[in-house]
From TrEMBL:
The protein's name in its UniProt record: CdiI immunity protein domain-containing protein
Native source species: Bradyrhizobium aeschynomenes
Length: 116
């Protein structure tokens, strides 16, 4: 299974994933991977429901990303899709992209280049 953190994403388990992330029982590596799963779960949720407005749980995710930018810098860069040809074309970005770009913009001076 390649990229399992995205393959195991499941919109019906978002509450469970968030609870696990916020439990304080996970290592940084586990939280990093779980955040990828959480974001992909929201992507899947939006694709299934075709509902453009995020629910309250998405705001929790954005706060987590913002507060833990050092841990999730790579994640923020990845989901921001800064190499997209047309930033205004929703077909060239993830559903989460505009939200994550706002976090990147707040921290951009600290995160001059994408982490490797």
């Amino acid at each position: 299974m390649q990229d399992w953190e995205w393959e195991v994403a499941d919109p019906t388990r978002i509450d469970e994933f968030l609870s696990a992330y916020e439990s304080g029982e996970l290592s940084e590596d586990e939280r990093f991977v779980l955040m990828e799963t959480i974001i992909q779960s929201f992507e899947d949720l939006q694709r299934l429901e075709k509902h453009p407005d995020p629910d309250q749980r998405w705001q929790r995710v954005l706060v987590i990303l913002d507060r833990n930018i050092d841990l999730h810098a790579h994640t923020v860069w990845y989901w921001s899709l800064l190499d997209a040809a047309d930033f205004s074309d929703p077909e060239q970005q993830f559903w989460a992209t505009p939200f994550v770009r706002a976090i990147l913009a707040r921290h951009r001076t600290r995160l001059e280049k994408p982490p490797t």
